[in-house]
Amino acid sequence: MIVLALLASILAAGVALTMLILAHGRPEDDRGGPRADMVRYFGLAAVAALVCGAMNALETAGGGVGAAAGGNAANLLAPGLLWAGARRLNGRRAIGAVSTGAGAILMFGLTFLVALEDATLLKTAGLVVFGALGALECARRPLGDLRAARLLSWTLGVYAAYNLVRLAAAAIFGPGVLTSPGPVSAESTAAASAVAIVLVSAGAVLMGRQLDDAPAPGTRAHDRGALRRQAVRLLSAHATVRATLVRVPEIDLIRAAHTVERGEVMLKTVGEALEDALPGTVTGMPARDTVFSVAAATVDAAEVERTVRRAFARRMPSIDYDDVPDLCFEHYLIMDVDDLSLLMESRRLRPRQGHPGGA
Asked: Sign of the C-alpha dihedral, residues 277, 283, 288, 290?
């Protein structure tokens, strides 16, 4: 019976993870926004539920304390990440993920130090705490205004109450009641977890349809989308467009000698210089420390570099910087928007240092 219940919870978690990935549903590379945050946190919670079910099945098969410790830690991560994700969607301080991770690590270690029955009690208490916190956070505005959030809140609240009943039963009848057949047994808990996973995944998918997936301005996802849209517009009138990539080789030294914020201002100034030199261009930073510009290929690349360097130098006094850092350019002729996507992705995965290139 316990094996069937564990398999049900594993299957539910797998289905939940698949549904969350499909819920994002945007094929382009400019996805982002609240929906992406929800998929990230809730997807990790589904992964944790999968690991928990697998570790519990391994423990049942004789995996020992190690399997129990992994299952207990993953079990806490699942509702904890739901709480952390709800905090993120409510725009609150990002202490949820840190607290959840710390609790899971603590639970993992304690499982080796105390009896397994006591570890189960500690884990159950953690589930009560994280379930209640998640229920309250899902009910908090602005997330609580979404109809799907109410389903999540009720599900997490009932799940927390169920685990509270398990704690009360253990306090009255002893810890052995949690491993004996009955409504608070391991089998019943696994079945209840499977039902909770199904309800949470359904609520998450409904919530994903209500959340915006447009990334916020200033983020890399937003810049990727803006550059792609500019390429589509230009390619409708021209056979090719030019993607100009500009880096500041000294950017790490600037950050070390001044501040990280000064480095970001320097990169923003590069973008402004590109806009001065190429009127009508769209600039962005879709990859770390690399400023992209997409414009019609009507001006010679060498002339573009000279004009940008002059515009960049003129802006140094306005940001209170005495020196004029060198700039490194790369030029590419783009004939399809997918080429631009691949170029941005290559810089995101492998930022190149000091390589001229292009066509």
From this structure: negative
